[in-house]
Automatic annotation (TrEMBL):
Pfam families: AAA_30 (PF13604), TrwC (PF08751). SUPFAM superfamilies: Origin of replication-binding domain, RBD-like, P-loop containing nucleoside triphosphate hydrolases. Residues 896-924 are annotated as: Disordered. Residues 20-325 form the TrwC relaxase domain. This is TrwC relaxase domain-containing protein. InterPro entries: P-loop_NTPase (IPR027417), TrwC (IPR014862). Residues 912-924 have a biased composition (Basic and acidic residues). NCBIfam families: MobF.
Length: 924
């Protein structure tokens, strides 16, 4: 997979590695020509790439460190200090870190802590990685063939870079309103032959400097399109690499990925035919050794260093000499003549419908780049021509959707590609969305499901008397809307922490007073238990409810079938995709029942395609709860509400059809939220991710709150694993963990992972199991571990009981039941609905947006929230707190041929700017 990493003004990535030093230390392959590499290799290990490099007359010249340093600073490479961008030469500032009281923060050694801020960003490190089979082939081939294989890889890298360069954009005009493609980037490419465990691993680092030529002058460029097209660029590289190897006479073997149950996932990869899977596995130990070292409490960088075979990387001569001996020793046939001339081998074919199904697994609207990626996942190893032909055919079969909407104030003479490109949706997706809205519209005036006002008033009066408080106006309005003023479907939207459960308790009483019965449906069984506990209604997961409805099974003992007196409550409906809402509506409508969708479309989005709640809301409107009740601190409530947008009248916007925010509005909102978080002492930036993780772990361990009241939030599994490793080291030092560590394969859904446990560890159950009496999400503590005769682990667990219930013991054998994961971290997505007094949030720049940041912060109930990260990543997070990543629906975005938006007429100021450009010859 192609990796794309930002480089700070110091030239470091988020791990703290200095990329220029690393690349310039790479030894030349040209010195090996004749014995280890063929004489016709061509260019050296390091070489210039990019149309911008050609404009600077660098192509074909030797790459030297001095030129790289100049370009990294934003200057011309000739040493004349000609600025190639506005902030060329701007150095980062070393800033003393302060705590909330203004005192210097100290490192564990007692020294003051500093962080580097600002300065000219060097650029990005873009790494293309060859499949392991190609790396092995290169390792044992003869010199001439080795040269040809290396050139096949380089040519494919060039194709991937060409694609990326064609997508990069820059800004021109007043306030950067015009977005134009760059004419050229400046890139240094550098080949590496091995990973740091000295195993064959052909990969090329490409240092994309932060300068570009466009519109007749040099300047900076924006990285957003680079990241948008990252997967597609990898697709281009892999397709060209496979085809280049075919031209050398090798066969390409397509392989099917299977899940832990050995079921075909539909994903395909490829390898060079004749390279044994056993050989690939034997030389793929690097990742395992690094993870093992990290369980000892080492940082990622320390783990890499500890597991290296040598302090200094061996020369290419040593590598090739070693590989030529060890690869045949594992039984691999290394005779090139036996490997050439083989036919391609295909895995079971994936149909176009299979691809469309996978393409829309998580989104209703896609772009060409997404189709390109999904076709490759289904048909890996095919030629670039076949790949593009498949993409073209699929596009022609889909519904064309209008481009992404853009604020009128941001529309210059030239708009960014993303605001002008056609998008696509599978016709099935469009049909589902239209059905949801048609059903909502058809029953808007259904009076048979309404509670009479006289009953409503009586129940509300009794409720207020019982509880000893008066409902707020919006709470009263919400109950009236859901019970008496809506038809077969109704929507209640509420901000995070608005107390939707209080309203749910009340409307449940109102419906029941009218002889109606409620059944709750939630994203998970655990969430259903929480809804049932708080509201008193029977509840289950949407998956379970739909299974029972689809199969005609009894729903519950007291509510066997849906009928005209049934009220289905879809909780956290903002996280439910369109297809689930459509299926639920069908059952509800067939029974003449009522469906309530309650949630927040501004929090975390559905995992599946589309947003069903938004479709219903657009047709029927919604009642809203905007008063925050979860956060006890007024400052925290102010921060929480700052994540939401407001309309011209100052009202909070809880629907998803507002006009898109402008760049200025996003920047202003991001700055406002960031300023409030900084004032709260909630931002903790460090020079590297390693330092940030260490600090986050330290604070978590030292927290005065009980472990089950500390919420450690992450965005991906890699960060969860790294932080878990550190926490376990700290807990062992404190005597919480006892005895030896034991490792086994844990499982969650279709994902397998290495999991290490000791007595005293906290773990999370990842599967519902009625026989054991556990639910997905239950927490447990490891009480005993023993090795069985078959080598598996017999683990004794103490499972936490539900509120008011005692804990209980269960015993599992990991050979037959391994549905466990470490219980110290939660992903932000898993945490929606949680509330804790201490929240530790480790940020990931590529995954933070307004929605995820909102959910992360609003998990806080009373004491402390803190966001941790490397400075280079938090700078990106800082600018994304106002940016939305909402699920879109095809019918709401508009069909290209019927409803494509016309660009608003330009303002007088825009017309004058355009006239000046044309008058001065600047119009492209």
């Amino acid at each position: 997979m192609l990796k794309l990493t930002p480089l700070t003004a110091t030239g470091n990535n988020a791990r703290g590695d200095n990329v220029i030093e690393y690349l310039t230390a790479t030894q030349s392959l040209k010195n090996l020509t004749g014995y280890y590499i063929g004489a016709d290799l061509g260019e050296d290990t390091m070489r210039w790439r990019g149309h911008g490099a050609a404009m600077l007359n660098l192509m074909g010249k030797t790459v030297d460190k001095a030129a790289m340093i100049e370009l990294a600073a934003g200057f011309s490479p000739d040493g004349l200090k000609e600025k190639l961008c506005q902030n060329a030469g701007k150095l980062p500032e070393k800033v003393l870190k302060l705590d909330r009281d203004g005192n210097p923060r100290l490192l564990p050694n007692g020294h003051p802590d500093f962080v580097w801020k600002g300065g000219h960003q060097v650029g990005y490190d873009c790494v293309f990685n060859a499949p392991k089979s190609v790396s092995l082939l290169l390792a044992f081939a003869d010199p001439e063939e080795r040269s040809a294989i290396l050139q096949a890889h380089r040519d494919a890298v060039d194709q991937g870079l060409e694609y990326m360069e064609s997508k990069v954009e820059t800004r021109r005009g007043k306030a950067g309103i015009d977005v134009i493609p760059v004419d050229g980037l400046v890139i240094t490419s550098c080949d590496h032959l091995a990973n740091r465990n000295l195993e064959p691993h052909l990969h090329t680092h490409n240092m994309l400097y932060g300068v570009a030529y466009a519109d007749g002058k040099w300047g900076g460029w924006e990285s957003s399109e680079l990241f948008r097209h990252q997967k597609a660029a990898d697709t281009i590289y892999m397709a060209h690499l496979a085809e280049n190897l075919r031209k050398l006479g090798y066969g390409i073997e397509q392989q099917a990925e299977v899940d832990p149950d050995q079921q075909d996932t539909g994903v395909r990869s490829w390898k060079v035919s004749g390279i044994d899977d056993a050989t690939i596995a034997a030389f793929s130990t690097r990742k395992d050794e690094v993870l093992e070292a990290m369980t000892e409490g080492l940082s990622h960088q320390e783990a890499w260093a500890k597991t290296r075979a040598h302090k200094d990387e061996p020369s290419p001569e040593e590598l090739f000499s070693t590989w030529e001996k060890v690869i045949p020793a594992v039984g691999q046939d290394c005779d090139i003549t036996n490997l050439k001339g083989r036919s391609d081998i295909q895995a079971p074919a994936r149909s176009d419908d299979d691809i469309l199904e996978a393409l829309h697994a998580t989104t209703a609207i896609v772009a060409e780049k997404d189709i390109l990626w999904e076709v490759t996942r289904a048909r890996a190893g095919q030629s670039p021509e076949a790949l593009l032909a498949d993409v073209k055919r699929l596009k022609e079969s889909m519904v064309e959707i209008a481009p992404e909407r853009q604020a009128a104030v941001d529309q210059g003479v030239h708009v960014s590609r993303r605001y002008s490109e056609t998008r696509y949706a599978w016709s099935k997706i469009v049909d589902w969305e239209q059905e949801v809205q048609q059903r909502a519209d058809a029953r808007r005036d259904d009076i048979s499901v309404r509670v009479p006002e006289r009953i409503l008033d009586t129940v509300i009066a009794d409720y207020q008397k019982e509880k000893g408080f008066t409902l707020s106006d919006e709470q009263r309005e919400a109950v009236h809307h859901l019970c008496s003023n809506s038809g077969g479907h109704a929507v209640m939207a509420g901000v995070a922490g608005a107390g939707k459960t209080t309203v749910a308790d009340l409307y449940k009483r109102c419906f029941e007073a009218n002889g109606q019965e409620l059944i709750g449906a939630c994203t998970s069984r655990k969430a259903a238990g929480k809804l049932s506990e708080e509201s008193g209604m029977d509840a289950m997961s949407t998956k379970m409810l739909l299974a029972r409805l689809d199969n005609g099974w009894k729903i519950t003992k007291d509510h066997p079938r849906l009928n005209s007196k049934s009220v289905v409550v879809l909780d956290e409906a903002g996280m439910i995709d369109t297809e689930v809402v459509r299926r639920l509506m069908r059952h509800v409508d067939d029974a003449g029942a009522k469906l309530i969708l309650q949630g927040d479309m501004k929090q975390l989005q559905a995992i599946g395609a589309g947003a069903g709640m938004a479709l219903v809301s657009e047709k029927l409107g919604q009642t809203e709860l905007t008063e925050i009740r979860r956060q006890k601190n007024a400052e925290d409530r102010d921060i929480a509400i700052a994540f939401y947008d407001r309309d011209a009248q100052g009202r909070i916007i809880l629907h998803n059809r507002a006009d898109p925010k402008s760049r200025g509005e996003i920047a202003q909102k991001s700055a406002n939220v960031w300023k409030k978080l900084e004032k709260r002492g909630a931002i903790d930036a460090y020079n590297t991710r390693t330092e940030a993780m260490d600090a986050c772990t330290r604070d978590w361990l030292d927290s005065p709150h009980a472990i089950d009241n500390r919420l450690l939030l992450v965005h991906d599994h890699a960060d969860s694993q790294a932080l878990t490793d550190r926490i376990r080291v700290g807990l062992r030092e404190r005597g919480v963990l006892q005895g030896d560590d034991h490792t086994f394969k844990g499982r969650r859904d279709k994902r397998l992972y290495d999991m290490t446990v000791a007595v005293g560890d906290r773990v999370r159950i990842t599967k519902n199991d009625n026989d054991l009496g556990v639910e997905n999400g239950d927490m447990a503590q490891v009480e005993s571990i023993a090795r069985t005769a078959t080598g598996s682990l017999a683990i004794g667990l103490r499972v936490e009981g539900k509120p008011g219930q005692s804990s209980f013991a269960v015993a599992v054998d990991t050979q037959v039941w391994n549905h466990l994961q470490a219980g110290y971290c939660r992903t932000v997505h898993d945490a929606q609905g949680q509330g804790k007094p201490a929240v530790f949030h480790f940020a990931n720049a590529s995954m933070v947006d307004n929605q995820s940041a909102l959910v992360a912060f609003t998990r806080l109930t009373s004491d402390k929230y803190r966001m941790y990260g490397a400075e280079v990543e938090l700078e990106q997070v800082k600018n994304r707190l106002g940016a939305d990543r909402l699920k879109q629906n095809a019918v709401q975005e508009g069909f290209w041929k019927q409803h494509a938006q016309k660009r608003p007429a330009p303002t007088l100021e825009q017309e004058y700017d355009q006239h000046l450009r044309q008058d001065r010859g600047l119009q492209r």
